[in-house]
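Model the whole thing, not chain by chain.
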Amino acid sequence: MRRAGLQTITDFLPTQSGEGLSPGTYSTPKDRAVDQVDTGYLQSLLGYNARRAALSIIENFVAGMAEFELRPVDFSVLSVIHHNPGITSRQLCATLSIQPPNLVGMVHRMQQRKLISRLPHPHDGRAMGLHLTPEGLSMAQRAEQKAFKLEEKSAERLNPAERSQLIQLLQKIYL
Amino acid sequence: MRRAGLQTITDFLPTQSGEGLSPGTYSTPKDRAVDQVDTGYLQSLLGYNARRAALSIIENFVAGMAEFELRPVDFSVLSVIHHNPGITSRQLCATLSIQPPNLVGMVHRMQQRKLISRLPHPHDGRAMGLHLTPEGLSMAQRAEQKAFKLEEKSAERLNPAERSQLIQLLQKIYL
DNA sequence: TATTGTTATACTCTATAACTATA
DNA sequence: TATAGTTATAGAGTATAACAATA
């Protein structure tokens, strides 16, 4: 299964922070072994750190949400419907940057699990409104509670002020 | 191609920050349309923000590195070899959390592009040391310079102190 | 017996094209 | 003509199993 693969890095990257390391030239002795790998340069890159931290949190999240059989994306879908009853597939896709064809299966499976129901849209005959069933609501509430505990675990080395500042800084990047 | 897909969310998630929103119960009128999607809950989750920020940076990075034909992972491989000449495939895999079979092709392609060379390991006949060619060194230097510019762009709304604090906080999550 | 590098391969995720029904 | 939802499908990423060569 690929979900465990979220711990893999494969995507990461960028560039130097304010006082970062110099990209300078390195002498390359071709006959010496590397005993300790120097990751200092990558660790000076914001993108590398963001990716690594995100993967760490996701890994923890995946493990903790296994009991509900919810992948991160499933949790998000459930949660967005929870807080936006009647939302359409299209709105959900726009909100979570999911391609419409890729949402179809997720919604279908959640419907089979009796977590969500699709009702006619009040004034658009093409669309369907997504709602939680009582079971879905119960699971959303329990999953959100669990998510809170998992977040506490991931951020255990941050105090409340740091945690909220971290979120603020992250939002300055992408919002 | 999938690289563009990095803007897709699919993975995100977690839980509530210190003073986050209440997961509480919501009334669900089944006959009303959603006009404005409320993303407040997800935005209170550290993991969601980390994932979104990482994707934003990656998207910017992918676009900016296109001129070098380097994906983020290629950049990281090149950069780690740059700063650790003679590193083995195995060490590289451990450093970047790449599965060994998935590194083979990357190394092979970079070798074909004359960016890296593989030399016998000084005291382990099974292993090969990875080194940059002169062309590889030149590209690593230029790419790292470009990465710095791209990072400045991604973090343009952060001052130097905020940028370095963001990195510190991220490292408290995963290190 | 364990490890390095490798091949082959399966599975998951993501994107695009094209269709239908309705607006 | 444009949009919501859908089907089919291609492509990229990631994982595991198994092997030869060397430690």
